[in-house]
């Protein structure tokens, strides 16, 4: 189920005094929208000429009937927010902003294509080993994001509890993908483990630096990786679907998708209401189908994160907003990342200038009251 930009869910709490909570799924109002295949040439600028038709990724879904029909599933980045009145309203992008975003995305596409080319050459015909390497790499960005977010909080710059919680849930999901691939024998070769672990080490360092410099760029790069993962699993399902239906599902997959507390499973799917997706796992085909769908949810979350301050946990409600996120105790910075802070320090008045302006306004107000 894909939520539209105006879908509203109403859930009543079980307490005696019934309290109604509303889920609002809304597409982030940002010039930096999700584009298919991370194509830097399709940036939706300027806003006045941007099409209102959502960008989409087409997912081929195999049906279990005799005449297998292909169903196209579109998705776009959306997230639960505090509501339209509290959503961030970014200013129109300048020419410099457009140039910077194009550069960031071009670099991301080049890096992603380079890694994909290497993996294609090394793992042709070895699907499970390729998936093991892919999942080892795919969970690294979420570790990096959390590391930098904790560092910012330690410095007292700002706190983003929902970001940390959602990114942890994403890493938890990717870890179970990795456990599934290990159960299928994807890590049986020492060389595969050596390559995956060392790539993950250098990828972590690169992502930490990228996230500290420009979170938007880091989120977009992670989105590119997730799109590649989505397309890889989708092709595998179409090519091996009938064989997979005859194979049993690993126990780790059954436990993760169908048993126990599924709070973290709901947490990383920021475009869905909790409990709206409950997979069935009957065979290995169902496992890969759900892994592919997980990657689509990661794409949507990474797309939403590219708008500063837009992300909220699916389990958070406007009336229950934590003080950690409102900044009642922490000084909340108006920017994130080195690039954004430098840009705003140049284009916006300094704090001292703002204080002088406020002081002049206060003096004028006092003189006006005296004259009256």
TrEMBL record:
Any one Pfam family match given in the protein's UniProt record, by short name: AOX
Renumbered residue ranges of the record's region Disordered: 73-94, 309-330, 342-372
Cofactor: Fe cation
Entry EC number(s): 1.10.3.11
One term of GO molecular function: metal ion binding
Keywords: Electron transport, Iron, Membrane, Metal-binding, Oxidoreductase, Respiratory chain, Transmembrane, Transmembrane helix, Transport
Catalytic activity: 2 a ubiquinol + O2 = 2 a ubiquinone + 2 H2O
Cofactor stoichiometry and binding remark: Binds 2 iron ions per subunit.
Transmembrane segments: none
GO terms for cellular component: membrane; mitochondrion; respiratory chain complex; thylakoid
One GO process term, biological-process aspect: alternative respiration
Composition-biased stretches (Basic and acidic residues): 358-372
Location of the protein in the cell: Membrane
CDD domains on file: AOX (cd01053)
Bias-annotated ranges (Polar residues): 345-356
Enzyme superclass (EC): oxidoreductase
Entry annotated with the keyword Magnesium: no
Keyword Oxidoreductase attributed: yes
Record-given protein name: Ubiquinol oxidase
